[in-house]
């Protein structure tokens, strides 16, 4: 029901609204400011004894609230709903990976950062050698690059000191040369990230032909984020810039554990719910950052971590990087996890985090 109707009730109510503000009280309760699609606002009180107190709340997420209106004060309109339960969009609890007899595999190479002084050329070559020896036999038929395929130009102050290739066209040409080393039977998908020559506001369109003219015909250019159907499996890949906003907005989320952020994205069924922070969102008629369809495989990059986990049957992967620690990362005491290629078997769902650093 609408918030307006709910506030007039003397029984259990159920409303849906968007969170506009999250406050913690000194007694450990939470107060959310919530607005419904009629534009009516109310406060939602989550008591420190309610199970929902430990959940993650961020601005602009949409939630369901089951609760009861607060006591009526004489002469004043009611404005609070005391929540008994918060309902998340979430992935259905019975969602699971169903194995089939597909024999193909897909691999992910995030944050390659061609043009950076710390691009790991030798580790990349090891990976290429392995692909040449094994990819055909193992039917590794797809490779997706979820953004930051080059290091870009002018991305942060002083970046020119950390570049081995100082021209943007030359960076993409060098990338084309590196991609040509990948065996021809493999279909390649390239997405932009926040270091690429592309508008920053998400959803990002695919890279323009002015940069990709030297790419082979087995390279498909996609936007960011993108849903792909790969031999019947639904793959959602997103570079992951919003992870910065999730981490700065929620205390228990950290750069060390991007998989925990990805789980929250699935719970909220949105890649970037928070509006107006670091991650720019383009106004579009349709919300391309919403997770409408539950993917089989969900991949992000951006934070240069490497990890794999599963949530309600969805395989979540943070797809490493091919750039060693930069001066900027050293300054922030950040240790990346480079040189790891996650490979997912499309039939069995087996995930192999293949490490090329050794
Ligand atoms: Fe990156």
CATH topology of the largest domain: Purple Acid Phosphatase, chain A, domain 2
Task: Round the Cα radius of gyration to an integer and report it.
Answer: 23 Å
User: Quick check: average pLDDT?
Assistant: 96
Distance between the termini: 59 Å
Short description:
This protein is of the alpha/beta class. Helices cover 16% and strands 27% of the residues.
Describe the structure.
The chain has 358 residues and is an alpha/beta fold. The chain has two domains: 85 residues, OB fold (Dihydrolipoamide Acetyltransferase, E2P) (Beta Barrel), CATH 2.40.50.140; 251 residues, Purple Acid Phosphatase, chain A, domain 2 (4-Layer Sandwich), CATH 3.60.21. Helix content is 16%, strand content 27%. It contains seven helices and 16 strands. The strands form three sheets. The protein has a six-stranded mixed beta sheet, covered by helices on one side. A hairpin with a 2-residue loop joins strand 13 and strand 14. It starts with a helix and ends with a strand. 37% of the residues are buried. Bound molecules: fe (ii) ion (FE2).
Characteristics:
binds fe (ii) ion; 5-stranded mixed barrel; single chain; Purple Acid Phosphatase, chain A, domain 2; alpha/beta; 7 helices; 16% helix; elongated; 358 residues; 6-stranded mixed β-sheet; OB fold (Dihydrolipoamide Acetyltransferase, E2P); 27% strand; 2 domains
């Amino acid at each position: 029901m609408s918030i307006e109707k709910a506030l007039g009730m003397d029984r259990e109510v159920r409303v849906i609204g968007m969170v506009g503000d999250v406050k913690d009280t000194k007694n450990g309760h939470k107060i959310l400011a919530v607005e419904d699609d009629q534009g009516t606002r109310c406060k939602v009180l989550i008591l420190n004894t309610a199970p929902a107190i430990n959940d993650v709340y961020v601005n602009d997420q949409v939630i369901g609230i089951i609760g009861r209106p607060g006591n009526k004060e004489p002469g004043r309109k009611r404005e609070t709903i005391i929540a008994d339960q918060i309902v998340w969009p979430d992935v259905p609890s019975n969602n699971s990976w169903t194995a089939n007899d597909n024999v193909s595999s897909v691999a992910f190479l995030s944050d390659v950062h061609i043009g950076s002084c710390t691009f790991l050329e030798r580790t990349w070559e090891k990976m290429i050698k392995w692909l040449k020896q094994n990819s055909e036999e193992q039917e590794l038929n797809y490779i997706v690059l979820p953004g930051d395929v080059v290091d870009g130009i002018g991305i942060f102050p002083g970046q020119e000191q950390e570049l081995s290739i100082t021209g943007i066209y030359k960076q993409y040409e060098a990338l084309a040369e590196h991609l040509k080393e990948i065996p021809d039977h493999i279909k390649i998908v390239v997405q932009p990230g926040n270091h690429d020559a592309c508008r920053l506001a998400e959803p990002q369109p695919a890279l323009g032909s002015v940069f990709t003219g030297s790419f082979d015909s087995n390279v498909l250019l996609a936007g960011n984020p993108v849903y792909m159907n790969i031999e019947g499996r639904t793959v959602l890949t997103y570079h992951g810039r919003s992870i910065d906003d999730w981490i700065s907005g929620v205390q228990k989320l950290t750069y060390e554990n991007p998989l925990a952020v990805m789980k929250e994205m699935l719970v909220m069924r949105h890649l970037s719910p928070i509006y107006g922070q670091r991650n720019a969102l383009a106004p579009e008629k349709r919300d391309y950052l919403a997770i409408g369809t539950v993917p089989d495989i969900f991949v992000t990059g951006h934070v240069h971590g490497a990890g794999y986990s599963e949530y309600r049957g969805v395989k979540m992967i943070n797809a490493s990087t091919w750039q060693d620690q930069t001066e900027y990362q050293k300054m922030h005491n950040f240790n990346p996890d480079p040189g790891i290629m996650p490979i997912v078997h499309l039939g069995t769902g087996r995930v192999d985090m293949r490490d090329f650093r050794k």
